């Protein structure tokens, strides 16, 4: 939004939203128009009617309506406008720094802020309503953490554990590595690349992985060369030299964000089906053992059959007693104002340990919150489950992220029905009657309940937050739903936000003592971390898969500024065209990436 500022007219400052930046200037004769029988340019108009002589009439004009054009130099940007697009890394870091407040200070801010407000406004007092200025006290319980099983079990402490001295539960072998540096040797030398590769190889070996050739050749990308073609040619040369194709492509990138990142992932995930691991040079050069150990966590699960850790059956509770698929679903939207479609992603476990996942992604109309093609996506996952296990799951546990309470009825009518229809269709394909027990849970962190320990000694030893495993299911929960709050993770900065879980459907009739520990324990299976995450891993994976799908869809042209300058009908046509184009671009993930966590 901009304000039109005209000298000597301080009281008149109309505010308008910019529709577009025009290609013509204020003194463009071709854009002259009739005013009171006289033809004049925009610059002449402002001179005659406002006595304003433009200093730069050659600057472009902005469009604020179908017929109104304003000179650029007479416009001021209205202060205090909300930025809805993605921040760059420096801005993100600054925003986090400014909004990080430790729990004790957060509590004081809330109570002090409330005391400045009239505690019982007249409108509330007439109805006998008052606002307590002190935090509400509720009962909570602390659930024990599960054992995380590598080659040996590890017991997390306050939601965190250490993998030093451990081997992966199923460590993979890397027979052939292809290494490419997408920068000049002047900025990232051969020695730098070799040192970083050695650091990663050492970390992988410490965790039990077999590296057949620990000192691969380093390839430097010629500036301006086509990225996929160069990777392809380097891979072909390596295959000719070693006799086998590369099973891991390591790429060093100069900065973040980097346009080449998307090209690399599209090449590996869709075109060829090879694991790719990118490193940004500044982080890699400074990275020590913890940095490369974290990379090894990602590399192992990107390889065929790699499993970092599992939970023991007793910690999986009811889903360990019968064949079960644990699913996660999410929808991701393009930035506001963009005509680009939304992306939906669903993941589902394919093994008894809930560590091997199948994936399904699709595009759908822009801003649509529900998963439009969930039946088709679930059918694909059920087929994968059958192919791997020779049976269909008796239970389906579905975690849905990103849903508000006002959408619950729509989810039950749409998505729950779609899961049941997919199951029925899978049964018909096998000529059996198939009705699995479905438990559908909405989970998320977008709520306004903050959990603080009454006694600081009962909180996290370092941050003062509620401890990992604290569950609240009384007082602040819904009287209409089976829901609870769980602080599953150890918050690193500021005040931690608990996960909120609401059960919409439960065919199995699980009790709170069965479901709450299970949901908590599933937060300990996120493959690339050695700490519990804030929501169950399937929901987290679905969110990450959405992000990867958006990346696979991305292209150089950006329509965000174009759509804001068009009519409603034109915007709808652009959305429809973008949807059709995206459906053509979002190709299936390569079969060789099947059952791999390629999106981490």
From TrEMBL:
PROSITE patterns in the record: PAZ, PIWI
GO molecular-function terms, A-Z: RNA binding
Sequence ranges assigned to domain PAZ in this UniProt record: 1-79
Domain Piwi, residue spans: 248-554
Name of the protein in question: Piwi domain-containing protein
């Amino acid at each position: 939004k901009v304000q039109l500022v005209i000298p000597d007219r301080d009281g008149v400052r109309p505010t308008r939203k910019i529709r577009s930046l025009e290609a013509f200037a204020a003194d463009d004769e071709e854009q002259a128009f009739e005013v009171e029988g006289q033809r004049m340019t925009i610059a002449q108009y402002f001179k005659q009617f406002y006595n304003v002589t433009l200093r730069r009439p050659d600057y472009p004009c902005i469009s604020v309506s179908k017929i109104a054009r304003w000179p650029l130099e007479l416009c001021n940007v209205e202060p205090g406008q909300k930025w809805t697009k993605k921040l760059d890394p420096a801005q993100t870091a600054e925003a986090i720094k400014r909004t990080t407040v430790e729990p004790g200070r957060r509590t004081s801010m809330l109570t002090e802020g409330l005391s400045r407000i009239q505690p019982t406004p007249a409108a509330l007092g007439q109805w006998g309503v008052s606002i307590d200025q002190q935090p509400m006290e509720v009962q909570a319980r602390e659930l024990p953490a599960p054992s995380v099983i590598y080659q040996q079990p590890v017991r997390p402490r306050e939601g965190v554990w250490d993998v030093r001295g451990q081997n992966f539960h199923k460590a993979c072998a890397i027979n052939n590595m292809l290494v490419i540096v997408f920068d000049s040797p002047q900025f990232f030398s051969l020695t730098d690349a070799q040192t970083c590769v050695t650091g990663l190889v050492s970390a992988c070996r410490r965790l039990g992985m077999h590296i057949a050739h620990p000192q691969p050749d380093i390839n430097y990308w010629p500036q301006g060369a086509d990225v996929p073609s160069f990777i392809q040619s380097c891979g072909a040369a390596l295959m000719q030299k070693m006799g086998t194709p590369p099973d891991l492509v390591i790429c060093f990138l100069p900065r973040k964000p980097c346009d080449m990142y998307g090209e690399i992932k599209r090449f590996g995930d869709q075109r060829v089906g090879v694991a790719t691991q990118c490193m940004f040079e500044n982080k890699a050069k400074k990275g020590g053992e913890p940095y490369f150990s974290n990379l090894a966590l990602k590399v192992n699960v990107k390889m065929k059959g790699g499993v970092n850790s599992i939970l023991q059956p007793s910690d999986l509770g009811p889903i360990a007693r019968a064949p079960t698929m644990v699913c996660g679903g999410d929808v991701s939207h393009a930035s506001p104002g963009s005509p680009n479609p939304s992306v939906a992603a669903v993941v589902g476990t394919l093994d008894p340990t809930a560590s091997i996942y199948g994936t399904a992604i699709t595009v759908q109309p822009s801003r649509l919150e529900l998963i439009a093609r969930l039946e088709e996506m679930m059918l694909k996952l059920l087929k994968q489950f059958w192919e791997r296990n020779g049976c269909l799951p008796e239970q389906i546990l579905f975690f849905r992220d990103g849903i508000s309470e006002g959408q619950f009825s729509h989810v039950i009518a749409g998505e729950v029905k779609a899961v049941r229809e997919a199951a029925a269709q899978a049964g018909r394909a096998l000529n059996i009657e198939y009705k699995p027990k479905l438990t559908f849970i909405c989970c998320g962190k977008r709520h306004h309940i903050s959990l603080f320990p009454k006694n600081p000694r009962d909180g996290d030893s370092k941050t003062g937050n509620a401890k990992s495993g604290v569950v609240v299911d009384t007082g602040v929960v819904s009287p209409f739903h089976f829901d609870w709050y769980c602080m599953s993770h150890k918050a690193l900065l500021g005040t931690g936000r608990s996960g909120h879980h609401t059960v919409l459907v439960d065919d199995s009739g699980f009790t709170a003592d069965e479901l709450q520990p299970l949901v908590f324990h599933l937060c300990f299976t996120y493959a690339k971390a050695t700490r519990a995450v804030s929501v169950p891993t399937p929901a987290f994976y679905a969110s990450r898969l959405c992000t990867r799908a958006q990346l696979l869809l991305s292209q150089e042209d950006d329509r965000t500024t174009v759509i804001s300058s068009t009519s409603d009908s034109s915007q709808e046509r652009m959305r429809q065209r973008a949807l059709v184009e995206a459906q053509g671009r979002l190709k299936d993930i390569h079969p060789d990436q099947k059952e791999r966590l390629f999106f981490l």
